[in-house]
Design a protein that fits this description.
The chain is α/β, with parallel strands linked by helices and about 300 residues long. It has helices at about 10-20, 80-105, 140-150, 175-185, 205-215, 235-245, 255-260, 265-270, 280, 290-300; strands at about 1-5, 25-30, 45-50, 55, 65-70, 110-115, 160-165, 170, 200, 200-205, 220-225, 230. It has ten helices and twelve strands. It is globular. The model has no long low-confidence stretch (mean pLDDT about 95). Bound molecules: NADP nicotinamide-adenine-dinucleotide phosphate. NADP nicotinamide-adenine-dinucleotide phosphate binds next to α1, α2, β6 and β8.
Length: about 300
């Protein structure tokens, strides 16, 4: 099978490419950075400039599945300008691919897009699943809604569409976990606010296996890409401290302090998303790391 991956050079993309190549697939990828473009027999890069609306049309040749992971990081200060970048890097990029498929003969049958959990309402006790209609009213929720709408357009071309609403991805070197672990390693770790906010997380290996599963089974619709056991911020903080063998003695950090430091982006630390994973499990997907302690053990040992 030949796949075209956007954002292939990021945290999820790199691990997914490794798995797909191991399984004998061939990968084309689109990059916004010319220096990241390589041309090997089974791993071939193509350049696109989303702002200018240009794309190397050859990227689509012989492709069966598109995996759309590209997007500007949400972990940079949310200025007015940067918020536009967060949105456009996900939506305009999907639109660029849609136009390419519309205008050109192609062999694409499946479009699998990353998506986010911000679309769901805040919740501590109640668990939300993919049937939830209610949407959170926030900047990031709006981004997710527009991102999913851009993905859904592909169904008009007869292409199956699948969206993975991804929780906090846990990896040792990249993403949120190293940022959470840093103060704990330095002995100044603490929970955020009340610490009761729920964090729906997923181990990076489970996430890339889930992408592969969705592709193999040609799944359509929305799936939560979160482990079956979400935890509170306090439990997560304690679990990281335990695996790193560091003490936690500082009081919780009040939200107004983080708001002063991060501004609106403090949402990432304080929003509470309690999400179910049973839809993908009912399809037959088995999590290797369903519990936070074993996931962190695997990551750090
Ligand atoms: N990691 C998480 O915890 C998490 C959670 C929920 C959802 N997600 C979503 O899953 C997707 C993959 O996540 P990730 O952690 O692998 O992201 P990542 O490490 O930040 O990588 C994203 C990739 O997108 C491309 N990119 C960066 N800025 C861009 C821009 N302005 N315009 C177009 N492309 C740009 C880059 O590839 P090039 O430089 O090659 O163009 C980059 O390697 C993202 O859409 C992310 O929002 C991630």
């Amino acid at each position: 099978m030949k796949l075209l991956i956007t954002g292939a050079t990021g945290l999820v993309g790199k691990k997914l490419v490794t798995l797909l190549l191991q399984k004998g697939h061939s990968v084309h990828y689109l990059s916004t950075s010319k220096v990241k473009i390589q041309s090997l027999s089974n791993y071939k890069g193509f350049y696109w400039d989303i702002k200018k609306g240009t794309i190397d049309k050859e990227c689509i040749e012989g492709v069966d599945v598109i995996v759309h992971l590209a997007g500007a990081s949400i972990a940079k200060r949310w200025t007015k300008e940067y918020k536009k970048e967060i949105l456009k890097s996900r939506v305009h990029s999907a639109n660029l691919l849609y136009t390419l498929l519309k205008e050109q003969t192609h062999t694409v049958k499946h479009f699998v897009s990353a998506s986010g959990t911000a679309i769901y309402p805040e919740s501590i006790d109640g668990v939300y699943d993919e049937t939830t209609i209610e949407k959170e009213k926030s900047f990031l929720s709006n981004v997710v809604q527009e991102w999913e709408q851009a993905a859904d357009l592909f169904s008009q071309l007869g292409v199956k569409v699948c969206k993975l609403r991804t929780g906090v991805v846990l990896d040792r070197k990249e993403g949120a976990l190293p940022e959470m672990a840093k103060p704990i390693q330095m002995g100044v770790g603490a929970s955020m606010g009340k610490g009761t906010q729920i964090q729906s997380w997923i181990h990076i290996e489970d996430l890339v296996q889930m992408y592969s599963f969705v592709i193999d089974h040609q799944l359509e619709g929305v799936y939560n890409a979160v482990s079956p056991n979400p935890v509170s911020n306090a439990v997560l903080t304690r679990a990281i401290a335990k695996v790193l063998r560091r003490p936690l003695f500082l009081p919780n950090i009040p939200r107004f302090v983080m708001d002063l430091i991060l501004g609106e982006m403090d949402y990432l630390l304080f929003s509470s998303k309690n999400l179910a994973s049973y839809k993908i499990q009912k399809e037959g997907f088995v999590f290797q790391f369903p519990n936070i302690d074993s996931a962190l053990e695997k990551i750090y040992k």
